[in-house]
Amino acid sequence: MAVTLPDALLTRYKRFSLYNSPYRAHDGGCAVDLYPGTLRDGRTTVAPSPVSGVVRETRTVRAPPKPYAPEHDHLIVIDCDGPDELEGLTARILHVEPSVSSGDRIAAGESLGTLVRAGFFAPWVDNHLHVGFRESEQNPYRASGSLPLEPGVEIEPLAWDGTGRVVATGETYAVLDAPTHPDPGSRFIGVAADGGDPSGTERALSEHRFDGGVLDGGLPHYDGGGLLGLEGSATGAVSLNGDRLGAVDGRTIAWDDVTVLANDEPVTGLSLFCARDANFGAKLICPDVDLEIGDHVAVSVRPDP
Predict the structure, then answer these.
(1) What is the pTM of this model?
(2) Of the candidates 98, 119, 152, which is a domain's last residue?
(3) What backbone torsions phi and psi does residue 293 show, to the nearest 5 degrees?
């Protein structure tokens, strides 16, 4: 059973990702990270609820130990009665210090509390709500067990030639001014994968091809990613500007052993997601490479030796 994330839920947020995470709850796109802030306001603490319903429980949970973050996080469990597509399901929400408690009725968009940065976060990850859904009788406390998710919105693949100028930086990342949203607020977009016909062994392995699709995930700093915005499933090689990234099966991509380059310098990776705001642009994860606002950057991907 796949759960559709309706327009009424996703459009409350600036960005979302099903695959941009190292944690198994996101395997196969079984959880969604919802970002209330833009790429230039990634540390907002606003935490609007994605659903309406009754809070079943809140609890403090252990987070991985990190020198820059607390070793605890918070879990909010909500029995959903809206949006309609989610009625009867249980939502499991992390990364919010709750201002709600057991028995409270919450409306969609109402504040759940304050976004927090626990040990689940890499230093470059922006503040977000982690959300999964499961049947009401399922154990809501296990990290695994959430249902696969399907975005119920249009996601437009946006061509990007790999170049741009730096418009924002942090200690571990840089945001480029490209690609740009053609009509901010109207729909979600993401970086388009190359379509095209395979050759050799890849053609022999599959008769099913895909055209385009939106790349989602941490390339290659997380094990895999996703290909969103397609009708049906896809099989075969996935590329960006002719540089092979990996292979897709269904909508899940297994990254090849590759390195992302910024001006021919190796960086940690490229963060890929869906966004609808005017400040959309490529996000480079580059803690060991100094990039400054105004720098021109050309991004490419090479196979590892």
Answers:
(1) 0.94
(2) 152
(3) -55, 130
- In tens, the pLDDT along 238-271 reads 999 999 999 999 999 999 999 999 999 999 999 9
Distance CA 246, CA 225 (A): 9
What local confidence, expressed as pLDDT, does residue 234 receive?
A: 85
Q: How far is residue 302's CA from residue 290's CA, in Å, rounded to a whole number?
A: 20
Tokens for 230, please give them: 């397609």
Strand duo 149-152 + 3-6: pairing: parallel
One domain, residues 70 and 178: no
Whole-angstrom distance, CA of residue 116 vs CA of residue 68: 12
Only one residue has tokens 């970002």, namely: 35
We report the CATH number of the domain holding residue 13 as 2.70.70
* Strand spans (E) along 142-223: 149-152, 155-158, 163-169, 173-176, 188-191, 214-219
Number of domains comprising the chain: 2
What is the predicted pLDDT for the residue at 210?
57
Q: What is the rounded CA–CA span in Å between residue 67 and residue 76?
A: 25
Q: Which amino acid is at 301?
A: V
Give the N- to C-terminal CA distance of the chain in Å, as an integer. 40
Q: Give 57's strand partners.
A: 77
Residues 148 and 188 in one domain: no
- Round the CA-based radius of gyration of the chain to a whole number and report it: 19
Are 206 and 296 in the same domain? yes
Residues 142 and 177 in one domain: no
**Sign of the alpha-carbon torsion through 77, 79, 84, 88:** positive
Q: Are residues 110 and 169 in the same domain?
A: no
* pLDDT surpassing 80 at residue 212: no
Whole-angstrom distance, CA of residue 218 vs CA of residue 212: 18
- 134-170 pLDDT, tens digit per residue, is 999 999 998 889 999 999 999 999 999 999 999 999 9
**Both structure tokens of 119:** 């040990």
